[in-house]
Amino acid sequence: MDKIISLCKRRGFIFPSSDIYGGLANSWDFGPMGVELKNNIKSEWWKIFVHSRNDMVGLDSAIIMNPKVWESSGHTKGFSDPLVECKKCHRRFRVDHIVGDDVWNKVKDFFEEASNEDKEKKIKEMIPECPECKEKESIMAPRNFNLMLKTFLGVVEDKTSTTYLRPETAQGMFVNFKNILDSSRKQVPFGMAQIGKAFRNEITPGNYIFRTREFEQMEIEYFIPVPKDDKEWQDHFEHWRKQMAQWITHLGIDYSHIHELDIPKEDLAHYSKKTIDFEYEFPFGLSELYGLAYRTDFDLKNHENGSGENMKFRDPESGEEYWPHVIEPTFGIERTLLAVLVEAFNEEEVSSDDTRIVMKFPGWIAPVKVAVLPLVKNKEEIVSKATKIFNRLQQNFVCQYDASASIGKRYRRQDEIGTPFCVTIDFESLENNEVTVRDRDTMNQVRVNIDELENYLKENLNKK
Ligand code: ATP
């Protein structure tokens, strides 16, 4: 993991946020390579899940929504439980779950008013050891924790101006259900997709970009008719499970590194009847990459209750009105990026005293597709030919022009950002109109005629 973090900083993938001010814990900025990676992932996802399907529409809803949205969705209440955390294993627990409602209700006020020191003392008496790792005196004082990031609109900071940064993109889609029906002529079953930022005041952020307080999601809400039996929703669920597995493989992730975890009934979120976590073998352990949930009709029903608006779908043939049920595949972008980086990272022994780091991204993900390298930088004809080739290739590929340092060093730099092909223009190129194309993975070099270059690169990029 340290090697990946260091490479990401060195090569402009990911920087600590506000770096010159000492950074901000668990906040990250995406550099020139990182933003290309992210954009490639987002646009490919959109192409696959929106543009290539007739039953999907896109949406880009606001991050700051009417706070009533979060009341109806259950976030205002559900995210403000008293939580404690174990200093050692970092597991979080609901205090009321551990000590019981009766006990908690009696001491609740004490924890509102007491000093930090007294709170720490009291909680250690109440919960002397971590229920999970059994470490003694490791439970920290409870905090009334609302996972939503609060903010204020307008100039007065009071209750009426309080609102939240959305903790998920999903609710933006539910509240637009009527607008989409009225404007797109879609019939159930159909789905909505959205890509955007979400914010959570995580108690234990960390593991690089795995768990942050600001992150991006790519989410789908797929609306289906009220299932007549379990098989009906299970078929849709299975369809999306397969779609998610295909996407993961498309990212270049070896599926044997993925574990599909069927969440036990007692651990399901309040809205879910079934959830699968797609867990990935991250360097710090098996952890959730994506989720797939059957949310029943929980959301539309609650938004109808909360807003007073009719959130039902009217079947044009039968005239029947109902709240569609929902299957929700959800994908975190930073976790995608992290898994892609981990899979692509290779340290190879080139000779007995030489190793190279090479990022073996699939061609479509690679932030730079082609590097154009004049063999020398002080020979006018070579530089001019290289510039011409670069200008031409740039119209179809994301390219880099690099004339500094030795050719070997330049190859290594491109290997570290995962550029699939390097095109070198040398003295011979002036004679025979051919260039050397070096393959990132095999390091093989072939001579290609400049007139054939674009076709050659296109064809071979698709094979990566
Ligand atoms: P976790 O159990 O890891 O907290 P979650 O089950 O709360 O995740 P969801 O609410 O299902 O996560 O969110 C959907 C997706 O958004 C997750 O699968 C993950 O990819 C991503 N995600 C959630 N929280 C974070 C976070 N704090 N930082 C980065 N990505 C996140």
CATH class of the largest domain: Alpha Beta
- Cofactors and ligands present? adenosine-5'-triphosphate
Number of spatially distinct domains: 3
Low-confidence stretches: none
Strand sequence of the main sheet, in spatial order?
Answer: 3-9-10-16-13-12-11
Question: What portion of the residues fall into strands of 2 or more residues?
Answer: 25-35%
Q: Give the mean pLDDT.
A: 94
Helix content: 25-40%
Q: At CATH's second level, what is the architecture of the largest domain?
A: 2-Layer Sandwich
CATH homologous superfamily designation of the largest domain: Bira Bifunctional Protein, Domain 2
Structural class: alpha+beta
Choose one word for the global shape.
Answer: globular
CATH topology of the largest domain: BirA Bifunctional Protein, domain 2
The biggest beta sheet, please? 7 strands, mixed
Amino- and carboxy-terminal Cα gap: 25 Å
Could you please describe the fold and organization of this structure?
The protein is of the alpha+beta class and 464 residues long. The protein has 3 domains: 2-66 and 149-342, BirA Bifunctional Protein, domain 2, CATH 3.30.930; 80-146, no CATH class; 368-461, 3-Layer(aba) Sandwich (Rossmann fold). It is 36% helix and 27% strand. It is built from 16 helices and 23 strands. It has helices spanning 2-10, 32-51, 67-73, 75-78, 95-99, 101-113, 116-126, 170-175, 177-184, 230-250, 298-307, 333-344, 380-393, 407-417, 427-432, 453-462, and strands spanning 14-16, 28-30, 56-59, 80-85, 92-94, 143-146, 149-152, 162-165, 190-199, 214-224, 258-262, 274-282, 285-296, 313-314, 321-322, 325-332, 345-351, 354-359, 370-374, 399-401, 421-425, 434-439, 445-449. Strands 3-9-10-16-13-12-11 form a 7-stranded mixed β-sheet. Helix 2 (32-51) packs across helix 12 and helix 3 crosses helix 11 (298-307). The longest helix has 21 residues, at 230-250. It is globular. The relative contact order is 0.11. The mean pLDDT is 94. Residues 168, 200, 202, 211-212, 215, 217, 288, 290-291, 330, 332, 334-335 line the site of adenosine-5'-triphosphate. The site of adenosine-5'-triphosphate has 14 residues, from strand 10, strand 13, strand 16 and helix 12.
